[in-house]
Design a protein that fits this description.
By secondary structure, the protein is of the alpha/beta class. Strands 1, 2, 3, 4, 5, 6, 7, 8, 9 and 10 form a ten-stranded mixed β-sheet that branches. Helix 6 packs antiparallel against helix 7, helix 7 packs parallel to helix 14 and helix 10 packs across helix 11. The two termini are about 40 Å apart.
């Protein structure tokens, strides 16, 4: 039975080949992990090889011996067995066999864990299923890791990250491109594992703002998963096509277009058909179902770089608990899922009605519904605010009051095709807060950068602006 779970001869042959021909390791490093070896001593030797490679030190017997001796893990007999094994020129078949047996060992360990949580610890079935799906995703994506990272490996990984950023030429954009130049400067893009909350009152355009970011990624050939809990997929596509073609949304809805607009629509449809957009519009989904679907989709389409949930408060709870506890479970679940899948998750959120009683109606963190857990779990919180929405509303209320009193009403507000909008950064775990100004094109439901926006006009809060104006943007360091 155990013979099917490991092959020590193959392990020795692969390690011997790396030591005698270190140039092979560069290709193998992306495939093999230490835990793919069965024998602990083999795991230690391979781990030492990985460390030496990252330090740009020679991969040979003496340096491996020195590295393992510092950790008191060197086994002379095991090393002699490896050196006496015949090195192979083509390691592909051997590595495939090691990976296959490693997978079987992980699956066997998983079956033991399932039995333990289902029978001995009596977990609820929904939590057992979620645990199994998470473990299976980790196994199939080869993301099994040890419980702790030692200081040396963390330091080496961090330096490699810094060197990678430097190689980009001090680019201000580190994470996923938002599609808005000034917002990119403030956030350096959305980082892998970030939970981003986009919050606003109704009619402010939070869905449009999210779709604008989606459109930008699709144009770059990136993949996006969109969970639409409020509107069907066809309505989302209409908005995306309006943004792409610059044909007003109302014209698209009724098909009232001239020949030139029909031509633009046809071209946009062709582009959209080949895009990597995946929409789930089933309307009702809880955190467990969302996790399951997104893991499966990410496994099938690794090119997906961002997921969007529209919107958080519509998500179903997994029980009959207090709503605040359910929202807490959702926000924490989304944050952990973002880290697990190593991509940003953007969740839209409603704001409390109470802010409309204030003179300054610009949102604050406390305005988010069930804000405590959301504020804690989010890495970035963005508020979408358009002052014209309230100016128009106040105009209509004055007109209604004048008519009720039989008075003549003289309009003072002029409705505009393009309105100034603010994206307020209420929280940013790894950068400054403040706001960025955009233009909102109402007929196209499209946000765009200010045409003549000056970078020095960006408003920073609680940050030393002298450092904020450096060429290098705020860098989001990898999570330790």
């Amino acid at each position: 039975m155990e013979e099917k779970l490991y092959n020590l001869a193959f392990e020795k042959a692969v390690l011997s080949s790396i030591i005698f021909e270190p140039s092979q390791f560069e290709e193998l490093e992306a495939i093999l992990k230490s835990e793919d070896f069965y024998l602990p001593a083999h795991q230690d030797i391979y781990g030492a090889i990985v460390t030496l490679s990252r330090r740009d030190e020679p991969i040979d017997e003496e340096f491996i011996r020195k590295e393992l001796n510092t950790k008191k893990k060197f086994d002379e007999n095991v090393m002699l067995e490896i050196l006496s094994a015949n090195p192979i020129s083509n390691t592909a078949a051997y590595v495939k066999e090691l990976k296959d047996k490693s997978l079987k060992r992980h699956l066997l360990t998983l079956t033991t864990e399932i039995k333990k949580v289902a029978l001995e610890e009596e977990w609820p079935s929904s939590e057992v299923v979620d645990m199994v799906e998470k473990k299976l995703y980790e196994i199939t994506q080869d993301s099994q890791t040890s419980d702790f990272k030692d200081a040396e490996s963390v330091t080496i990984d961090t330096m490699r990250y810094i060197e990678e950023m430097k190689a980009r030429g001090n680019s201000v954009l580190v994470g996923v491109d938002t599609g808005f130049a000034e917002l990119n400067k403030m956030t350096t893009g959305f980082g892998k594992g970030d939970l981003v909350i986009v919050a606003a009152r109704p009619a402010m355009g939070k869905t449009s703002f999210a779709l604008n970011m989606v459109q930008n990624l699709l144009k770059k050939g990136k993949g996006v998963a969109f969970f639409s809990l409020e509107m069907p997929a066809e309505q989302l596509m209409l908005r995306l096509l309006s943004v792409d073609t610059s044909v007003p949304l109302q014209k698209l809805r009724v098909g009232d277009m001239n020949d030139e607009e029909w031509t633009r629509l046809g071209q946009a449809v062709e582009r959209m058909q080949s895009s990597k957009l995946f929409v789930d519009d089933q309307g009702s989904v809880n955190i467990n179902q969302l996790r399951s679907r997104l893991r499966k989709l990410k496994g099938q389409h690794p090119e997906i770089e961002m997921a969007v949930i529209d919107y958080l408060q519509i998500m179903s709870g997994t029980g009959t608990r207090d709503r605040h506890l359910e929202v807490s479970e959702m926000s924490r679940g989304l944050k952990m899922l973002a880290r697990e899948l190593e991509m940003p998750i953007v969740a839209l959120s409603q704001l409390n009605r109470g802010l409309e009683s204030r003179n300054d109606k610009r949102p604050m963190l406390s305005d988010i519904r069930e804000s405590g857990s959301i504020e804690q779990d989010a890495d970035i919180i963005l508020f979408v605010y358009r002052d014209d929405v309230y100016l128009y509303k106040e105009e209509k209320e004055r007109e209604k009051a004048a008519k009720a009193e039989g008075k003549e009403f003289t309009p003072t507000y002029v409705e505009k095709e393009e309105e100034e909008a603010e994206i307020i950064i209420g929280k940013q775990r790894n950068g400054p807060t403040g706001h960025v100004k955009l233009l909102f094109q109402k007929r196209l439901t499209r946000f765009i950068d200010m045409p003549t926006y000056n970078a020095t006009e960006i408003v920073y809060e609680n940050v030393d602006t002298s450092s904020a104006q450096m060429d290098v943007g705020t860098v989001s360091m990898p999570t330790i």
